[in-house]
Amino acid sequence: MTRFTPDLFAGSAAELTAIRRDIHRHPETAFEEQRTAQIVADKLQSWGIEIHRGLATTGVVGTLKGKRPGQKTIGLRADMDALHLQEKNEFDYASVHANKMHACGHDGHTTMLLGAAKHLAASPDFAGTVHFIFQPAEEGLGGARVMIEEGLFDKFNCDAVYGMHNMPGIASGTFAIRAGAMLASSDSWEVTFKGTGGHGAMPDRGTDPTYVAGQFIVAVQGIVGRNVPPSQAAVLSVGHIAAGTPGSPNVIPSEVLIKGTARSFSADVRDLLERRLAEVAAGIAQAGGCTAESKYHRRYPALVNAVEQTSLAVEAAAMTVGRENVDPNTPRISGAEDFAFMLEKKPGAYIMIGNGGPDEGGCHNVHSPLYDFNDRILTTGAAYWVNLVQVELGNAA
Where in this chain does the record put each Peptidase M20 dimerisation domain (predicted)? Predict the structure, then answer.
């Protein structure tokens, strides 16, 4: 089996960097990735790869059959969308669109998969079929779910599906992955406490939902500390509180709205968080003479890597950078990723590629207005994808 290292892609480094920076300069947010999708489609077609467009509005799927006979099919997925965020970088390829920025590295993810597609199209020495899945709307709107609902795996059946994301804080030239739950589910919740309100000087003549809400905010942390088993992990955070009017601080409001996020790694804990948030809100509200209306919105499920495909991803990463530079037991991450929807339908694995450690300098975290994808890892990511095709389909039948 041929081993592809980043050095073998050195001749493509300048081209990949140009593509990545062009996409970075022109960020497009969820379901609006028309320009990015056109770049992807044009590149794939120019390399002789059959394309399909239109899933989830702007999704692009390229299909490449190996030159050797084989029935196995795999999907390789990259996300394309940017964030609603004002970029603060001042380099010449900074975003030209106000309040839109590639602050999570999807410009790099798209480019790395394009680099692999170009190489594989020129030398399709594998048995079976590869689907290159370029997905819109990962950032909060569930583009993966929409692609699936619109027939992604009906039109392009995959025996396994794989994804990759950059990770600031770990060195370039390294990979990290784990079998089982790797990223958390991401849910949102809201509670509205209702009382009578009244004059701030006479709180005894009404019911005060702000007092109830304050107790609830503290009690929320007790759900994780006292209801979630110590062997599990979960996060409940408050992100929004709204009540009253700034011009009337002497008025006790009649309603308080609290919104937050919930993260967990198992279905049981997810169910527990939903149930206990409502129970705690209702109990505290009743004690304070108020009522509580609770809503829980399930958004992204936990991302769960299959054991077999994780092993294959580790092998491909080791072929790319050496086994000593691959962590197969990385700690779980409380962030979320809508690739989880694809892993609910198909076995597969999601891997993290190092975007640069602390000693490499200038490596800001994702979703920062100063973030930038590390162009030095473009060839590493492309090589990983090609090695994964070799591992999965090199001897497929």
Answer: 187-281
33 token code pair: 């990735």
The identity of residue 369, as a single letter, is P
In a domain, 108, yes or no: yes
Domain-ending residue, one of 266, 295, 324 = 295
- Same domain (yes/no): 211, 280: yes
Determine whether 141 is exposed, middle or buried from the number of CB atoms within 10 Å of its CB (0-12, 13-18, 19+).
Answer: middle
Q: Which of these, 283, 293, 272, 4, lies nearest to 126 by C-alpha position?
A: 4
Q: Are 177 and 170 in contact (CB under 8 A)?
A: no
Alpha helical stretches, state H, 62-208: 106-122, 143-149, 152-155
Enter the DSSP assignment of 205. Answer: G
Q: For residue 368, which amino acid is it?
A: S
Residue partners of 195: CB distance under 8 A and separation at least 6: 206, 207, 208, 209, 212, 252, 254, 255, 288, 289, 290, 291
Sign of the Cα pseudo-torsion (149, 152, 155, 156, in order): negative
Residue 229's Cβ-count burial label (10 Å; 0-12, 13-18, 19+) is exposed
CATH code of residue 281 = 3.30.70.360
- Express each pLDDT in 102-150 by its tens digit: 999 999 999 999 999 999 999 999 999 999 999 999 998 999 999 999 9
Residue 163 inside a domain? The answer is yes
- Which ranges constitute the DSSP H helices of the chain? 13-25, 34-46, 106-122, 143-149, 152-155, 209-226, 267-287, 307-321, 339-345, 378-393
pLDDT in tens, 87-106: 999 999 999 999 999 999 99
CA–CA dist 31, 134 (Å, integer): 12
Question: 70: part of which helix (H) or strand (E)?
Answer: strand 68-79
d(CA 348, CA 211): 48
Q: Are residues 236 and 312 located together in one domain of the fold?
A: no
End of a domain among 262, 295, 328? 295
Binding-site residue positions = 104, 106, 139, 165, 367
Binding region for Mn(2+): 104, 106, 139, 165, 367
Residues 385 and 331 in one domain: yes
